[in-house]
Amino acid sequence: MTMTRVILIVLIFLQAGYVVGNHSVVIPELSRPDILVVRYDRIYILEKTAIYIYSLDGFKLLKKFGRAGEGPREFKTNVMGAPMTLSFHRGDMVVNSLNKLSYFSPGGDFIKEVKNPLDVILSLIGDKYVGMGPAPDQDNRYLISFRLFGSDFKQEKILHRTDLNVNNPRKILLPMPCFTYNPAYHDKIYVVSSATEFSIDVYNTDGIREYSIRKEYEKIPISERYQRETHEWFKHDPRFKPMYESMLKKALHFRDHFPPIRDIQVVEDTIHVITYRRKNNLWEFILIDLKGHEKKRVFIPLDTYIPFSYYPVLYSVFRGNVYTLIEDVDNEVWKLHITPLN
Length: 342
Fold this sequence. Notes:
This protein has a single domain, classed as Neuraminidase, CATH 2.120.10.30. The chain is built from 3 helices and 28 strands. The protein has helices at residues 3-15, 224-236, 241-251, and strands at residues 24-27, 35-39, 42-47, 50-55, 61-65, 67-68, 74-75, 85-89, 92-97, 100-104, 110-115, 121-125, 128-136, 142-149, 155-165, 172-174, 184-185, 188-192, 198-203, 209-215, 252-254, 263-267, 270-279, 282-289, 294-301, 315-318, 321-328, 333-340. The longest helix has 13 residues, at 3-15. It is globular and about 50 Å long.
């Protein structure tokens, strides 16, 4: 192969958005993505009420649909900002928007919609639902909680309450506890049950805890730098800027240590754990089996840390690779990074 041909191939890869040695590709249609899921050799990205479907082979946009409204391919959002979600159940793509579940084929063809009275994030497990959202405790504090609902959407059991109180604007405790957006896997429910310990509780479809995963994990202290950067974020973010001086400046409180678990995804018979441990712009990623035995630790690229968000981290695991969406601020584009885990 001539040197000219080598240079030409490199230029083609760069123009296509690939970064040599980092394996990333530009996704030009995105502005502010909310959820990333990789399944069935496709990439699914939720942005506000729009759903993008890309091919995993070539990263071509196959379909875009969805808008605000009440029709079969339209979605309503919570005025307080509670997120829509996108997940898969028994081969169907399920979009959870305000008061309805919309079912689509993996290719984006509409199948049906199911109305529901709950303003929570729902995941399906068998014919039941796991709901994540605010629920009152005995002191009438509305804590983000995980609850089990029957097929009729009636609550059967509270599985776990986090310490995030959403009806007390005078105290916001950071960093936020872990919210697992798709806690159901093979008729089991996986819930991060502590903001201070490495703890994952595993429930069956009746809401009975079958076992817990506990690991020793070195605590990471909250730094003054993190506190300063968090205040700066609230001070300048358009949603919180008007309230910062009058309320949020005094309302922000910090834990002594970062929670041991930032996020988890349970796929391919493995629990994938993101922690707060970093190496520059890379984040620790721990792979453990379904009983808690550690397989591997690697570091993966993730987008800028957001101190307060109800949306999940922009990553997805599929067939031994972890896919992450990261904003290239200098070039004002979003890139999909692919990191092999093998």
